[in-house]
Specification:
alpha/beta, Rossmann fold, binds S-adenosylmethionine
């Protein structure tokens, strides 16, 4: 599942890589396909009692940097992303917001293991909707686990119960598969949410193709994002966790807080 306004159902690898360019407006960050992930990450942090003030935060595959914008400006931000242009644009947007320490670097998929940011230590590491794209997810999880400072936490989001397989996904993720990856990588699950039931009924809309389909997806994503804001972003996911199963909806995201075992 790709991200936000106009970024779903993307066919080619080139388009996939460019899908975060010029997407730094408030509307893009409000759109549900982006804001739902930020809500879940914040929920994990609250549950794990992790404060971000002054923290070193590393987002591996930060997309358009939605999570960074939810951090206090005292946090030091680090991240990698495939598209060099999106990396520059996100850096500029964060600096304009007042973040003093921003170190975002393009990711060369052929040589990802050599990326200098994988050699540093962080209080919070994010890996959101990335592992399902990789041939060797356990290898990345293991490396991200080694990036944790003492007491640090690795937050992982994964799509589950996808109604239509994204052509960019190498794995169809189930909770069992993901938990096996974590075990193999030597990480302990400190917190788990099977969440985002609201998205389940809108999956067919988000998967639509063509100009009209994209427009419908954008409108739905924005409408849901605004509804979440209205209800309160801290209340949205717990609300749907209770209501969703009663309506026969399935969780669409697995959210894990991992710590060194
Ligand atoms: C669907 S996007 C998720 C972006 C963002 N984390 C989010 O949750 O919205 C998948 C991300 O995986 C990352 N990635 C890393 N290695 C990759 C690879 N070999 N193939 C595809 N994507 C890769 C890219 O940074 C890409 O933006």
């Amino acid at each position: 599942m790709l991200d936000a306004v106009g970024e779903n159902a993307i066919p080619s690898q080139a388009t996939f890589q460019a899908c975060y360019r010029r997407r730094q407006t408030r509307w893009h960050h409000t759109a549900y396909m982006r804001s739902a992930k930020v809500m879940l990450l914040r929920r994990l942090l609250v549950a794990e009692k992790v404060a971000l003030e002054g923290a070193r935060v590393f987002d591996y595959g930060f997309g358009a940097g939605g999570f960074f914008l939810a951090c206090p400006t005292s946090a030091s931000l680090f991240g990698v992303e495939l598209d060099p242009m999106a990396t520059v644009e996100t850096t500029e947007a964060l600096c304009a917001q007042g973040f003093a320490h921003v170190d975002l670097r393009p990711l060369d998929v052929e040589r990802w293991r050599e990326n200098g940011l994988l050699k540093l230590r962080y209080d919070v590491v994010i890996c959101s909707h990335v592992l399902e794209h990789l041939e060797t997810p356990v290898e990345l999880l293991h490396m991200l686990g080694r990036c944790l400072a003492p007491g640090g936490v690795l937050l992982v989001l994964l799509p589950i119960h996808e109604r239509r397989r994204d052509s960019h996904h190498v794995h169809e993720v189930t909770p069992e598969l993901a938990l096996g990856w974590c075990r193999e990588a030597g990480l302990a699950v400190a917190r788990r949410f099977d969440s985002d039931h609201a998205c389940d009924c809108f999956q067919p809309v988000f998967a639509r193709k063509g100009a009209l389909g994209r427009l419908a997806a954008q409108g739905t994503s924005l409408g849901l994002g605004l509804a979440a804001k209205l209800l309160g972003e801290d209340r949205w996911m717990p609300f749907w966790d209770r209501l969703g199963p009663k309506l026969g909806l399935r969780p669409t995201q697995l959210a894990l807080a991992l710590r060194a075992a």
